[in-house]
User: Fold this.
Amino acid sequence: MLDNILLEENIDRITMPENLAIGLMVAEQHQKCSSIGCDFDYFGFAFGQSPFHVPPPLARALERAAVKSGYADAEGIFELRKAAAGFNARHFGLAPNPERIIIGPGTKGLLFLLFSILDGEIIIPVPSWIGYAPQANFLGKTYHPLLTSHDNGYKLTAEDLVSFLKKHDKKQYLLVLNNPNNPTGAVYSKDELSSIAAICRKNGIVVLSDEIYALTTFNFSAFTSMGIVYPEGTFVLSGLSKDRSAGGYRLGICYLPEADCRKIKMGFKKLAATVYTNVTTPVQWAAMAAYSENDEIEEYIAITRELHRIMGLTVSKEFTEIEGLQVTKPEGGFYFYIDFNSFKDNLKFCGVNNSNQLGKALISHPHHIATVTGDSLLLPPDNYGARIAFVDYNGQRAYEAYKNQRPSSSKEEIAFVKEFAPLMVEGAAAVSDFLAMVKEGKFKFS
Assistant:
């Protein structure tokens, strides 16, 4: 009788994905709270999903595309690649060449395919998005967490790269650069990217530039794609999930580098055709509406960008006012980062002995604060930091209110956040209360 089915050992290298890990942690705490009569709810700073509705032109296009049931080219439907190339040219100044565009199953899927195709060890600036390291682990690829500094807004510098290269053998490295950054909200300037590009060019480093949040950059005119400053060595990754709120559509775009474009594309096509045949055909046809010139979608992107700015700056300021915290000021994306290290001794006194336990402590009763901490961000155990996602509100309600009457001053923006995102403001107060208990030694982690 078969009672033990063996799994490949590489599956054990993968940590629990963030959404499942946080979901399990919330469920576990809910059970604990129910046992003591607590009507449990939580402050949702953990999940990085756009709170907004899918743009109506995209939703309508998906309805029309439902009949498109045939197989598509592994690299993506040509018409969509042409539309995406035009979109990249209009918004980012990239060359409008559809032959350099590949369509994939979301940026996460594209990263997995690129990690599989490209030779070389991976450099990951830390704190990091939760998804890069688990993929590298599964594939058995060596990766190097490169710790960045609060003094530089947790942005990788050319000097960081030079220092790394002095300590490691010369080979092809794959640098993962996330801009705007998840979890810090930082945006790299053109000069900063150019300095990094100079080191990459000199040392043959390939850049995987994860620009999924590019169109959410608050001051979008200041955004520069790495594909502009290092076109020969940069893969630019983007998609529909963040700025067009269509995460479940699972459609990503990869803009290939100039160097060896045809060879890379052939490798990608072979792997894609082997693994999943093509990205869902109706979604590809619908996505043409998202990448073609469309005033309604452009307005949608502009409004949601402003709402992210208002929410991010207001909520991060609430956290900044908590004495002892170091808080990043977001410039794009859905996130900012909190450094709790000035409370390290207090936290350890209360039984919170590492950064993983910080997340569990924050969600414990009576605090109920869901965040992402520790290993998920590639933080060392003694580095107490947390990512705050500022998307815990009814996006469609806020969107309609903003369209009807836009806040015209900082005072009105604060009032807007308090009206349409009260849980995030209350969540900041809950963190303040948690730290007060920690400082007084009244919190006990168990």
